[in-house]
Specification:
There is one protein chain. The protein has 135 residues and is of the alpha+beta class. It contains two helices and six strands. Strands 3-6-4-5 form a four-stranded mixed β-sheet. A two-stranded antiparallel ribbon has the order 1-2. The longest helix has 18 residues. The N and C termini lie close together (7 Å). 32% of the residues are buried.
Protein backbone atom coordinates (compact mmCIF):
# COMPACT_ATOMS: atom_id res chain seq x y z
CA UNK A 1 0.00 0.00 0.00
CA UNK A 2 1.18 3.48 -0.83
CA UNK A 3 -0.66 5.11 2.09
CA UNK A 4 -0.12 4.56 5.82
CA UNK A 5 -2.63 6.29 8.12
CA UNK A 6 -1.45 7.41 11.57
CA UNK A 7 -2.91 9.00 14.70
CA UNK A 8 0.18 10.51 16.40
CA UNK A 9 0.32 10.52 20.16
CA UNK A 10 -0.40 14.01 21.42
CA UNK A 11 -3.23 14.55 18.91
CA UNK A 12 -6.84 13.48 19.48
CA UNK A 13 -8.07 10.25 17.94
CA UNK A 14 -11.12 10.89 15.79
CA UNK A 15 -13.21 7.96 14.55
CA UNK A 16 -14.05 9.56 11.20
CA UNK A 17 -10.47 10.11 10.04
CA UNK A 18 -6.77 9.78 10.90
CA UNK A 19 -4.63 12.82 11.59
CA UNK A 20 -1.75 11.98 9.21
CA UNK A 21 -1.20 10.00 6.03
CA UNK A 22 2.23 8.95 4.79
CA UNK A 23 2.48 8.44 1.04
CA UNK A 24 5.17 6.29 -0.56
CA UNK A 25 3.64 5.49 -3.96
CA UNK A 26 4.73 6.59 -7.41
CA UNK A 27 1.52 7.95 -8.96
CA UNK A 28 -0.23 11.01 -7.51
CA UNK A 29 -3.96 11.13 -8.35
CA UNK A 30 -6.23 14.16 -7.91
CA UNK A 31 -9.94 13.39 -8.09
CA UNK A 32 -12.13 16.38 -8.94
CA UNK A 33 -14.77 17.30 -6.42
CA UNK A 34 -17.49 14.69 -6.71
CA UNK A 35 -21.14 15.60 -6.25
CA UNK A 36 -24.09 13.22 -5.99
CA UNK A 37 -24.55 12.64 -9.72
CA UNK A 38 -24.96 9.12 -10.99
CA UNK A 39 -23.33 7.99 -14.26
CA UNK A 40 -26.13 9.68 -16.23
CA UNK A 41 -25.62 13.06 -14.54
CA UNK A 42 -28.79 12.75 -12.45
CA UNK A 43 -28.63 13.97 -8.84
CA UNK A 44 -29.02 11.12 -6.34
CA UNK A 45 -30.68 11.92 -2.99
CA UNK A 46 -32.15 15.35 -3.60
CA UNK A 47 -32.61 16.94 -0.17
CA UNK A 48 -30.94 13.98 1.61
CA UNK A 49 -27.44 14.77 2.90
CA UNK A 50 -26.62 11.15 3.85
CA UNK A 51 -27.62 9.83 0.41
CA UNK A 52 -25.59 12.54 -1.31
CA UNK A 53 -22.50 11.85 0.81
CA UNK A 54 -22.83 8.16 0.00
CA UNK A 55 -23.00 8.88 -3.75
CA UNK A 56 -20.00 11.25 -3.58
CA UNK A 57 -17.88 8.56 -1.92
CA UNK A 58 -19.07 5.92 -4.41
CA UNK A 59 -18.12 8.28 -7.25
CA UNK A 60 -14.63 8.69 -5.78
CA UNK A 61 -14.37 4.91 -5.57
CA UNK A 62 -15.36 4.66 -9.24
CA UNK A 63 -12.83 7.31 -10.28
CA UNK A 64 -10.01 5.62 -8.36
CA UNK A 65 -10.87 2.16 -9.70
CA UNK A 66 -10.56 3.53 -13.24
CA UNK A 67 -6.90 4.42 -12.59
CA UNK A 68 -6.03 1.27 -10.64
CA UNK A 69 -6.67 2.58 -7.14
CA UNK A 70 -9.14 2.42 -4.28
CA UNK A 71 -9.97 4.26 -1.06
CA UNK A 72 -6.97 2.51 0.49
CA UNK A 73 -4.85 4.84 -1.67
CA UNK A 74 -6.51 8.09 -0.55
CA UNK A 75 -4.10 10.41 1.23
CA UNK A 76 -6.52 13.33 1.82
CA UNK A 77 -10.20 14.20 1.47
CA UNK A 78 -11.82 17.62 1.41
CA UNK A 79 -15.56 17.71 2.07
CA UNK A 80 -17.65 20.80 1.25
CA UNK A 81 -21.15 20.86 2.81
CA UNK A 82 -23.78 23.50 2.06
CA UNK A 83 -25.03 25.32 5.19
CA UNK A 84 -22.97 23.12 7.52
CA UNK A 85 -23.84 22.96 11.19
CA UNK A 86 -22.41 20.42 13.66
CA UNK A 87 -25.83 18.83 14.23
CA UNK A 88 -25.60 17.48 10.65
CA UNK A 89 -22.57 15.31 11.54
CA UNK A 90 -24.67 12.12 12.06
CA UNK A 91 -26.02 12.46 8.50
CA UNK A 92 -22.51 12.92 7.12
CA UNK A 93 -21.22 9.90 9.03
CA UNK A 94 -24.23 7.81 7.98
CA UNK A 95 -23.52 8.53 4.31
CA UNK A 96 -19.85 7.65 4.76
CA UNK A 97 -20.78 4.41 6.55
CA UNK A 98 -23.19 3.39 3.81
CA UNK A 99 -20.59 4.04 1.11
CA UNK A 100 -17.92 2.22 3.13
CA UNK A 101 -20.15 -0.86 3.36
CA UNK A 102 -20.73 -0.86 -0.40
CA UNK A 103 -17.05 -0.24 -1.16
CA UNK A 104 -15.81 -2.75 1.42
CA UNK A 105 -13.44 -0.22 3.00
CA UNK A 106 -13.08 2.08 5.97
CA UNK A 107 -12.43 5.50 4.39
CA UNK A 108 -10.60 7.35 7.18
CA UNK A 109 -7.77 9.36 5.56
CA UNK A 110 -7.06 12.85 6.88
CA UNK A 111 -10.01 15.05 5.98
CA UNK A 112 -11.03 18.67 6.00
CA UNK A 113 -14.71 19.59 6.37
CA UNK A 114 -15.75 23.01 5.08
CA UNK A 115 -19.13 24.68 5.29
CA UNK A 116 -20.01 26.53 2.09
CA UNK A 117 -22.85 28.81 1.00
CA UNK A 118 -23.60 26.92 -2.23
CA UNK A 119 -22.25 24.44 -4.77
CA UNK A 120 -22.63 24.13 -8.55
CA UNK A 121 -26.41 23.58 -8.54
CA UNK A 122 -28.99 24.12 -5.78
CA UNK A 123 -29.76 20.38 -5.43
CA UNK A 124 -26.19 19.52 -4.42
CA UNK A 125 -25.63 19.55 -0.67
CA UNK A 126 -22.09 18.13 -0.60
CA UNK A 127 -18.96 17.83 -2.75
CA UNK A 128 -15.98 15.64 -1.91
CA UNK A 129 -12.54 15.79 -3.51
CA UNK A 130 -9.73 13.31 -3.01
CA UNK A 131 -5.99 13.08 -3.40
CA UNK A 132 -4.58 9.59 -3.72
CA UNK A 133 -1.18 7.98 -4.13
CA UNK A 134 -0.90 4.68 -6.00
CA UNK A 135 2.09 2.32 -6.11
Amino acid sequence: MAITLVNPSGLPEVDAYRQVSIATGAKLVFVAGQVSWNADGVTVGTGDLAAQVEQCYLNIGTALAEVGGSFADVAKLTVHVVDWTPDRMPLLLDGISRAAAKLGVTPVPPATLLGVAALDVPDHLVEVEATAVID
